[in-house]
Amino acid sequence: MNGADVLCDVLLANDVNVCFANPGTSEMHFVAALDRKPEMRCVLGLFEGVVTGAADGYARMTDRPAATLLHTGPGLANGLANIHNARRARVPMINIVGDHASYHLPLDAPLTSDIETLAAPMSNWVRRISGPADVAPSAQAAVRASLTPPGIATLILPADAAWGGAGPVPSARAVPAPPPAFDMDVVRKIAEAVRASHGRVGMVLRGRAARQDALEIAGRISAALDVRLFSEVLVARMQRGRGRVAPTRIPYPIDAARALLADIDVLILVGAKEPVAFFAYPGKPGRLVCEGCEVMTLAEHGEDLEAALAALGDELGVKPLQPVSVATAFPDEPAPRGTLTDDAIAVSVARKLPENAIVCDEAVTSARRYFALSAFAAPHDYMMGTGGSIGGGIPMAIGAAIACPGRKVINLEADGSGMYTVQGLWTQAREKLDVVTIVFSNRTYAILHAEMRNVGVNAIGENARRMLDLDQPILDWVSLANGMGLEAARADTCERFEALLDSALSRPGPFLIEAMV
Amino acid sequence: MNGADVLCDVLLANDVNVCFANPGTSEMHFVAALDRKPEMRCVLGLFEGVVTGAADGYARMTDRPAATLLHTGPGLANGLANIHNARRARVPMINIVGDHASYHLPLDAPLTSDIETLAAPMSNWVRRISGPADVAPSAQAAVRASLTPPGIATLILPADAAWGGAGPVPSARAVPAPPPAFDMDVVRKIAEAVRASHGRVGMVLRGRAARQDALEIAGRISAALDVRLFSEVLVARMQRGRGRVAPTRIPYPIDAARALLADIDVLILVGAKEPVAFFAYPGKPGRLVCEGCEVMTLAEHGEDLEAALAALGDELGVKPLQPVSVATAFPDEPAPRGTLTDDAIAVSVARKLPENAIVCDEAVTSARRYFALSAFAAPHDYMMGTGGSIGGGIPMAIGAAIACPGRKVINLEADGSGMYTVQGLWTQAREKLDVVTIVFSNRTYAILHAEMRNVGVNAIGENARRMLDLDQPILDWVSLANGMGLEAARADTCERFEALLDSALSRPGPFLIEAMV
């Protein structure tokens, strides 16, 4: 049994049975090994950013790692931006990066590069397999690292470790490090602070604390003690919809975020980090809480966030049957009609969302209204790119669809962002994934126009316009999708958009709606 | 004057007047500064691999750096694969990577990453601007670094250095380090070796040694002393065509390469590295020269290669008017007819190539015949991706077209490779570049099928097939091109291909031919 087979077997023994791949020559033995394991689902991406973004989406929905297969340093480099997003989402992932045979590296062949150094900034764990006998222990360690938060594990597989004889596969499964226990002293201190600052307390929920059961505990605390609930500006994953507790998302613009948090004296972090400005601006603060606000961490990512919330509830005397405030009926507003707008799309999607759908939101400025409306939609999972690196949406939808067959995935996608990993549409078509992609075609990097105004430039000239606008020529998303084998259609009225959405939701398989806004 | 203005002015003062850009928020002050400099040509890429690949193509044709503008660590990461290619081509390039304001970094906002570490493996020089006053010296140093081989310079521009007051622009131009002189003792030793091993000497020419005048000197040495002339397997740039000395390209397959070099006892490197196998295979050697072959370096990249060749010619008593052997008439073979094939395309392109064209070859396995035929084509420049990272072809054509207005650029592109940076077609359309892209649509990663056979796998199963083939669904390149505003048409016969090629060559502006092979 060669090293490549051992690596596959260790992955499969640990239920890592999806491999998003863009292989090259140095990975041919690993590809041959995968070929001998039909129980491994291999999903080809035509660009590595698709591969890593899909692994991110998969992990968000399963809390389990997928493997990625990347070709040497440049292949890893192409995948790094979405590994960055995954790292910021704090999901598990096992990147397998093929490299030259160890004895070939000193020859400095064209594809040689320093893979360890490239991997380090976006990985929590990096290891180079030292030889065939090291494949099994390294693979076990990679699985363990991926399951021990934070979980981005990058494993470098030299070709000669893959093709060398590697002995038997260990029978034991990799055991992740046990999660650290949250601290009861901290719980008591926070309970005291909540009581002392009644009505001026906020709580930021993320990760496992943004799932239905944890949200419900937080919702009871909120109802009983007037604690305001927030999500981070970029939502890794949150369970939303009717009947669920609905935190308010901290806005992206600094002034709006600071206004929201202006009367919060105690901010409790549950798996979250202290909210900070996305970017710095001259003369504006980077922290978003008000002067003197006490920021307290109830529990960190990797700890049992739901148990920590329950402990806080107990400490505060919140009863398990305490009523919670949840969204119920959809806001009473007329159905959108006429010219299509960003907000009309948000309303239509929220209204028509099927039960148990998954929404991948990379519409940047365009779907701003969606998150608030999602509280009134059918229960669903909601997620965004979390590292600020655009190009995560189309791949994330791939991963979510593969993770959750039978659930409809809706990808709210900006045209600017979508182009970074547009190749993912082909994978959606090939795998017949149940993804409806809605491209908000506004023919511009709208966020950058806003940011130009933020830096004080109101009238822009030719050079700036040509760097911020996507017109000349206009992207035709129907042609792009068709070119990758994906059915698609265009809408420029609300009526047409709703008809296309109804049709796409009524049948399985991928579809793209180009929404002209 | 703020730092961003100073940076632009230093670039412009040093004739760096093309900026390939994919900006984000942290670069808005730099974008505003570029907007005030209409003499800077700003070219938007919809993905960073387009941006860096274009800068590579520009530098190959001008021997001068373009600037790239990239957004924080993930933006740089997306551009690294083509920076890797550029580094292997040893061209000058100035990457400007925007980052958060320095005081914002400790807050670890979502887009924060370790840019220095990401940049290091693919850069020859990395510097972070320390503040507004450091912009001018850093920019000067970056220009100098880019012009002092090897020349990949990466300059990190924190937002507060861009927006801070930065004083006047230095009037002096950046002066690159003087090129090291080649060593006359080495020249004499090599001359001795050439005489001693008459008929068993080879010479590998690259970089400036692969331009017409240097090739001619090498050709005279070759004719006078029976020295065989080679190019590296991946050609950074070579002047080819009728009337020019035509080195033989060292083949990619190890066995063929070793056979070519089997009777070479002395191999002289002129700006080149010793040829090695692209990848390692079990039981095959990594070096390509025969046992006992003496490898001697006449001059290294960065030295005056043409002068070194001239000195060697003098030392060997080769006369300036010694006849050289050059290709003249096109090989006598019938024009291709009927079903379109890879080789038929190579023949048609070589036959019809306009004078002074630029050929960017990223067709991987498909255009194998082209290089040999290019010796008989009209005089032109030929270049390939040099780092083995695919996705360089479409962007390289952009850079070449911007570098050389009035010259036709022909991009021989594989379908697999083309998808990595397919977004570049949009930039070709927007800039109305004189590029004819020929996509060899074979619906497979043909090279990987060959490599599977190389590792001993002849019958492949479902998992491997799905990782190596691009069918299901088939990519429709005409739709993809049209979706990005580019005219395109499909050919599946030689006649149709030639008609499309004639038409595309007869008028300016971009066109894509999907060649079904």
Structural class of chain A: alpha/beta
Whole-number tally of structural domains of chain A: 3
Radius of gyration of chain A: 24 Å
Largest sheet of chain A: 7 strands, mixed
Strand content of chain A: 15-25%
Pfam family, one (chains A, B): TPP_enzyme_C
Domain Thiamine pyrophosphate enzyme TPP-binding (chains A, B): 375-514
Organism (chains A, B): Mesorhizobium dulcispinae
Family (chains A, B): Belongs to the TPP enzyme family.
Outline the structure in words.
Two copies of one chain form a homodimer. Chain A is an alpha/beta fold and 517 residues long. Chain A folds into three domains: 3-163, Rossmann fold (3-Layer(aba) Sandwich); 184-315, Rossmann fold, CATH 3.40.50; 342-516, 3-Layer(aba) Sandwich (Rossmann fold), CATH 3.40.50. Chain A contains 20 helices and 18 strands. In chain A, the strands form three sheets. The first copy, chain A, has a seven-stranded mixed beta sheet with strand order 9-14-13-15-16-18-17, sandwiched between helices. Chain A has a six-stranded parallel beta sheet with strand order 2-1-3-4-6-5, sandwiched between helices. Chain A is globular and about 65 Å long. Chain A starts with a helix and ends with a strand. The relative contact order of chain A is 0.11. Chains A and B meet through helix 2, helix 4, helix 5, helix 7 and helix 16 of A and helix 2, helix 4, helix 5, helix 7 and helix 15 of B. Chains A, B: InterPro entries: THDP-binding (IPR029061), Thiamin_PyroP_enz_TPP-bd_dom (IPR012001), TPP_enz (IPR045229), TPP_enzyme_TPP-bd (IPR011766). Chains A, B: Pfam families: TPP_enzyme_C, TPP_enzyme_N. Chains A, B: It comes from Mesorhizobium dulcispinae.
